[in-house]
Amino acid sequence: MSASTPGSAPVLLAQAPDGVPTITSGDDLAALLTPVLAALTWPDGSTGLAEGDVVVVASKIVAKAEGRLVAARDDAERDQVIAGETVRVVAERARPDGTTLRIVENRQGLVMAAAGVDTSDVPAGTALLLPEDPDDSARRLRRGLNARTGVRPGVLITDTVGRPWRRGVVDLAIGAAGVQLLADLRGRADAYGRELTSTVVAVADEIAAAAELVKGKVSGRPVAVVRGMGHAVTREDGDGAASLIRPPAEDLFRHGG
């Protein structure tokens, strides 16, 4: 069932279990998710988590557990919240309804609309900030799952972003523990023997996007398990998803319009 099993066609499986409870401030996320993940049933008849699995968790429930809900009773207060999370404005544009869309770099170093501040699926008059340190959140969740299940899965914390030049949004990894983030193919030969000189695959982001296909935005399934990427799961937690952020010297799109 591993994508790297010799002599077999690669197979990738993803499941988003039902039954994740409502998460509130102070909840032990690992404790709440353990029975939900244990109830998973796989096509080969196995159940629960296995070594090599990747647990993919929406940042929203991580942020709720970490008490990142703040007051945002009107547009002006929401704008103040966004400004407080903003390090740098990349681009802004007026909407037909009179509000302004702002693409900014936030405190986590991510470039996002509205600094990643979310007002969906939260009580009226509030807004949800991203986890303060998503990589630390991923490491703590990994340790908690390992302590309760005996399995050391990879863990990704994900959020939704738009992309320059492309319509639609995708999920990407904003926090990671125990997952190979990139696959550097430079120096390898393609099918015609030509050397690859620039191909570096965003493995963690592709796992995050695959998981979102089964989690969905409105299904009430904020967690998925991806199986078949065991070759990308590492014993050590690794550098974390913050290392994926392109440094300014490499950023061709640093200034928007």
UniProtKB/TrEMBL annotation:
GO MF annotation list: coenzyme F420-0:L-glutamate ligase activity; GTP binding; metal ion binding
EC code(s) of this entry: 6.3.2.31
Source domain of life: Bacteria
Keyword Ribosomal protein: no
Annotated Coenzyme F420:L-glutamate ligase-like domain residues: 20-228
Keyword vocabulary terms for this entry: GTP-binding, Ligase, Magnesium, Manganese, Metal-binding, Nucleotide-binding, Potassium
Matching InterPro entries: F420-0_g-glutamyl_ligase, F420-0_gamma-glut_ligase-dom
Keyword match NAD: no
Enzyme class: ligase
Pfam family name, one: F420_ligase
Full protein name: Coenzyme F420-0:L-glutamate ligase
